[in-house]
Amino acid sequence: MASPDSPHSMKKLLSFFLSTLFLTIVNSETHCRNFKSIISFGDSIADTGNLIGLSDPDDLPAAAFPPYGETFFHHPTGRFSNGRLIIDFIAEFLGLPFVPPFYGSQNASFEKGVNFAVGGATALERSFLVERGINFSYTNISLGVQLKSFKDALPSLCGSPSDCRDMIENALILMGEIGGNDYNYPLVLGKPIQEIRELVPLVVTTISSAITELISMGGKTFLVPGQFPLGCSTTYLQSYKTSNTEDYDSTGCLKWLNEFGKYQGDQLQVELNKLQKLYPHVNIIYADYYNILLRFVQEPAKYGFLSRPSPLPPCCGSGGSYSSIFGRSFGLKGLKCCNDPSKYVHWDSAHMTEAAYRLMAEGVLKGPYAIPPFDWSCLNPEIKNSGSSDTEHSLM
Ligand SMILES: *[C@@H]1O[C@H](CO)[C@@H](O)[C@H](O)[C@H]1NC(C)=O
Ligand SMILES: *[C@@H]1O[C@H](CO)[C@@H](O)[C@H](O)[C@H]1NC(C)=O
Ligand SMILES: *[C@@H]1O[C@H](CO)[C@@H](O)[C@H](O)[C@H]1NC(C)=O
């Protein structure tokens, strides 16, 4: 019988280590992909024009009017910001065109990307939320509806089933941010937080099912963002204002709301870890929007933002109500905006500026806010290093 330290068992041990090493290398190599397109689902954080495309021309959303779009596009595009969104910076980084909106588009080419994200969209079906007393009128294009639109459009997007599988396999699939509005609407309606917490597992399951379905269609790489620190948002700092100083953390954010945001992010990560174990050949990456934004709020000056007043006001309409910026143009007239949006984290009371989105995209693509981090080892150095040359501040 061979003793544990015999040459034979040493050799076995060595070959075990070598094969583990080999497997690790092969594994990490398979996760680096030269993405050929971006397929996106979500809400206003990633909407590049869908809500406008779906809207009655007499009842357009805020993002159809100046000063939305003023900084980069120099006209409104339907993006809920002054310029580019995270999805735009991801497209730039990958050397792909900006992802065209699917809804209401005419003659758009979807070969290198298609975007189903709609401002105001929820993860859960509208009818389900209305049944629970959460009535809202912005849009009924929930995640399920977006996914159905994608499936219905496949023949025109990519032709044959094998071509479609190929397209989906080589795409970076942005799954969200989605779910924020499932919480925003009941929060605005003043529903008890306990009732809202009950929605979290349902939202997480809905996101998880959508990913599973896309995996069955060939999906290989998913970027799945969590929620923002809601307790730092202007909207809620106003509507849940209290004289109880205990309710606020050292940066002036509402503790109980941030705890909720963290809770939902944790639940999402647990579910994504489960999915990752079930589908080891797929790469599921969590984008930690919560902690990126928290850093801006905690140390704004470090990232080039104004640090006063505290809490940080949005560039536009610091006194604006949620409805005035979120859905329709109602209340937009007279919206006052700052002169230099690049110094602000928040654009309006529910969305970030281009400057903040740029840093967020960087923090996910190249920094520590993608879990696990992206592997760009197979790309040429030119691409890997792009995107930060014109950036003064960095999250890395
Ligand atoms: C779409 O393409 C058709 C045919 O090429 C053309 O007649 C039409 O003007 C185009 N529409 C838009 C909005 O560009
Ligand atoms: C929801 O709100 C709309 C108006 O915004 C109203 O017409 C509708 O009846 C409401 N539905 C329910 C179930 O309350
Ligand atoms: C969404 O609402 C519109 C207008 O009320 C309606 O025509 C459409 O059928 C709805 N779509 C879905 C998927 O529920």
UniProtKB/TrEMBL annotation:
Superkingdom assignment: Eukaryota
Pfam families recorded: Lipase_GDSL (PF00657)
Work out whether the entry's keyword set contains Hydrolase.
Answer: yes
Q: Does the keyword Cytoplasm apply?
A: no
Alphabetized GO MF terms: hydrolase activity, acting on ester bonds
InterPro entries in alphabetical order: GDSL, SGNH_hydro_sf, SGNH_plant_lipase-like
Q: Which residues form the signal peptide?
A: 1-28
Q: Please provide the record's keywords in A-Z order.
A: Glycoprotein, Hydrolase, Signal
Cited PANTHER family? (RAPE) HYPOTHETICAL PROTEIN, ZINC FINGER FYVE DOMAIN CONTAINING PROTEIN
Protein name per its UniProtKB record: GDSL esterase/lipase
